[in-house]
Amino acid sequence: MTRSNGLSVRDIVVRYPAEGRSGRAAPPAVDGASFAVGRGEVLALLGPSGCGKSTLLRAVAGLEPLERGTVEWDGEDLAAVPTHRRGFGLMFQDGQLFAHRSVAENVAYGLRVQRLPRDRREARVADLLALVGLPGMGSRAVTSLSGGERQRVALARSLAPEPRMLLLDEPLSALDRELRVRLADELAALLRETGTTAILVTHDEEEAATIADRTIRMREGRLVA
């Protein structure tokens, strides 16, 4: 835990409410996790479904309350900082695009929230679409895109506000194997080209090795390596 420049997670515990009437506390979904991610580093959280890795990512984002522990950025405790003010970009398995908006409108969403002037917003969107291999496709309806194209749009939207860290929750797992391998290479190159700090949640060993600089394994709520 020597990195202070970037993310520091210390001894966090996340526990969901117990089901039923037994009154007994549920076992923690995340149990005492500690790790750090330096600026510009890409870390993979690797493990089987149900091991707690997505819950851990959501806790870093501020989407799950901590029972114990701290999440810090550059030494600042984020406990009182809501998700939308943490400066973290989020990308999920299904992309969660706005079906009623065009490709460009989806990518520009975070820039509108930031109240970026229209000319700068349009230039940023064009640059990002070119970066993710979709130049000139801003006017397309997202419903007309392939699965791989939609994930590229989701990635561009996540990068648009220039987040200080990107949180990727199984972003390629819904794609077929051949496309997943190709996009993993593209994602790795893009993250390094942009110098993006990122955490990747995945169950795929090859994907973790391709995209991340470093991998931590997770099992039954605990980090094991």
From TrEMBL:
InterPro entries: AAA+_ATPase (IPR003593), ABC_SmlMolc_Importer (IPR050093), ABC_transporter-like_ATP-bd (IPR003439), ABC_transporter-like_CS (IPR017871), ABC_transpr_FbpC (IPR015853), P-loop_NTPase (IPR027417). Pfam families: ABC_tran. One of its GO terms (molecular function) is ATP hydrolysis activity. Residues 7-224 form the ABC transporter domain. It comes from the Bacteria. SMART domains: AAA. Keywords: ATP-binding, Cell membrane, Ion transport, Iron, Iron transport, Membrane, Nucleotide-binding, Transport. Coiled coil: none annotated. The keyword Metal-binding does not apply. One of its GO terms (cellular component) is membrane. PANTHER family: SPERMIDINE/PUTRESCINE IMPORT ATP-BINDING PROTEIN POTA, SPERMIDINE_PUTRESCINE IMPORT ATP-BINDING PROTEIN POTA. This is ABC transporter ATP-binding protein. It comes from Leucobacter chromiisoli. The lineage of its organism: Bacteria, Bacillati, Actinomycetota, Actinomycetes, Micrococcales.
